[in-house]
Amino acid sequence: MTYKCAIIGVSGGRANGHADAYAHIPRGQLACIATRTRANLDTFGDRWNVDTRYTDYRELFEREKPDLVHVNTPPDVRLEVMQAADAAGVGALIIEKPLAIQAEDYLAISQFAKTAKIKVAINHQLHFHPRRSRLQKLVVDGAIGDVRLIDASARMNMAYQGTHALQSIAAFHPRGEPESVFAQISGANGLQQGRKQHFAPDATMASIRYADGSSALLRCGTNGPYVLAGDERVNVHKQVTVYGTGGFVHWNMWGWETSIGGKHARGNHNYPDEDILGQAAMTEAAFDWLEDDSRIHALNLDAALLDFHILLKTYMSGLNRREETLASELQPGLIDALRRTL
Question: Structural domain of residue 23, as residue ranges?
């Protein structure tokens, strides 16, 4: 079967990565696109040979009935896109991160998830990068023993890459049950109005405690470490290191390292090559889920909501200067509170 696929929101560069991956997606065809600006729509359509074009994504949903849609709209319209796709009978969405921005968005999407029929995954393609997938399997299969500490970081702020870091923690510790967060936050430049509306503190550091006694260290923003010496590009410094009772594994955008059973190994990889294959595998996993309800996508909406809950409790902990449990009530108006405080 060939699945009919669409991209909505093609004015930015991110959509090109989705389109490029279709050379590695045998079961899917990029058949239609939508974006509000006609010139951008035609430029993208001409580049990728997509003739079916809309300036209204709702019309695309109703007329084309795609099986899968990649969603690259701003975070403040995530819910309305999900609602429209669900009502039109679209099969699945892969939504660009972040899922939301603050507690009100998160709670509204959580309510939607309780009754929605549509399958939703979040675009954390790093989970499916070939190298990281192999390292994740090593850890989940017990190669480094019991997980004790996970160190995850990114140089971009929590709205841009924080959920990438949180998803990487969950990927390497899928049976972990997060219980509480203790965090520090600083800097208000990322809270200013901008085109993308990706509001977040400039720097965040959080300790996450799990029910099994393990913990995670999360650093996002200007306090995140550089993983490629001399490279000032802010987006290329994501990394995760997992320490267990019998060794460790490390992944970053350009290399990897393991210490297992007294044997040490390390090497390099090319991020763009890994990324296109990760995008493709992420999309193929959505097709698996469409074919079989039991093959739940690793990046499914419930998992993303848990990660975003941790993000929100990180903000609350920093604002209130105390450890926050995941069971506590969410604080409304967090972004405005961050602006006032920082």
Answer: 3-125+277-299
